[in-house]
């Protein structure tokens, strides 16, 4: 990493290329601030030489778009591969878009939860997008899918696109009740959680040793 730091520092800290186009610095800190991004672990991590010197292996940046832009510009000048980026969509908190999923508040689905715990958390805590306060109002006004947590979670976990589209259409029109869409989500989540627990129980020491191995042969292309 030290080699990459030395290579990154001159164009960043002294010529401010391409930092000046990605990060706004205050004029009176112009000589100090450009050095900070160079030390930032995100910059060094995504521009470091690929492990095992495999020329085809590059880095995937999950966050820090500014640093990605800097690295995309600098990498070719240093003879390195440009990093790639993965755009992600985050899960909403169970309590709704304006809340935070937190272990301390108990509104989190854990991979260690029992089927009953998954059921109780969804039915008690999952924010509803229903536009009505009564059954009659819900039937007439339907639900707002953009804020309904159960539907948003099904967008991630329901593998059948046709079923998801049908569920969304019926729920938004008021043909499906909040309890019914929550039941659908519970069934899907219980399958995900129980499947993970089963797979984890079947992991052996040999499996762990294989995935933790640093043998370069594991990374060779077929």
**Largest β sheet strand count, sense and barrel closure:** 2 strands, parallel
Termini separation comes to 29 Å
Task: Give the low-confidence spans.
Answer: 4-18, 49-54
Helix content class = 40-55%
Oligomerization state: single chain
Instruction: Quickly give the structural class.
Output: mainly alpha
Nearest-integer average pLDDT: 76
* CA radius of gyration: 24 Å
Main β-sheet, spatial strand arrangement: 1-2
User: What is the helix tally?
Assistant: 11
The overall strand count is: 2
Strand content: under 5%
| Overall shape | extended
Order of helices and strands: HHHHEHEHHHHHH
Concise synopsis of the structure shown:
The protein has 222 residues and is mainly α. The protein is built from eleven helices and two strands, in the order H-H-H-H-E-H-E-H-H-H-H-H-H. Helix 4 (41-47) crosses helix 5 (65-74) and helix 8 (149-157) crosses helix 10.
Task: Give a written overview of the molecule.
With 222 residues, this protein is an all-alpha fold. 49% of the residues lie in helices and 2% in strands. The chain contains 11 helices and 2 strands, in the order ααααβαβαααααα. A two-stranded parallel sheet has the order 1-2. It is extended. It starts with a helix and ends in an 11-residue tail after the last helix. Residues 4-18 and 49-54 have low confidence and may be disordered.
């Amino acid at each position: 990493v030290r080699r990459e730091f030395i290579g990154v520092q001159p164009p960043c800290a002294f010529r401010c290329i391409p930092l000046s186009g990605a990060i706004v610095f205050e004029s009176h800190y112009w000589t100090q601030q450009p050095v900070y991004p160079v030390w930032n672990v995100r910059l060094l991590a995504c521009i470091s030489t690929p492990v095992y010197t495999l020329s085809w292996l590059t880095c995937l940046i999950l966050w820090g778009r500014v640093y990605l832009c800097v690295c995309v510009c600098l990498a070719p000048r240093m003879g390195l591969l440009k990093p790639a980026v993965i755009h992600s969509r985050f899960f909403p908190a169970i309590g709704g878009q304006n809340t935070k999923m937190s272990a301390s508040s108990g509104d989190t689905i854990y991979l260690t939860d029992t089927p009953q715990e998954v059921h109780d958390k969804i039915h008690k805590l999952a924010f509803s997008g229903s536009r009505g306060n009564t059954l009659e109002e819900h039937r007439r006004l339907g639900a707002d899918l953009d804020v309904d947590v159960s539907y948003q979670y099904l967008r991630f976990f329901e593998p059948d696109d046709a079923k998801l589209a049908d569920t969304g259409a019926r729920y938004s029109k008021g043909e499906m009740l909040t309890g019914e869409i929550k039941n659908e989500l519970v069934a899907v989540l219980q399958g995900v959680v129980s499947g993970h627990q089963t797979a984890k129980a079947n992991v052996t020491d040999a499996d762990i040793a294989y995935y933790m191995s640093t043998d370069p042969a594991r990374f060779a292309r077929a």
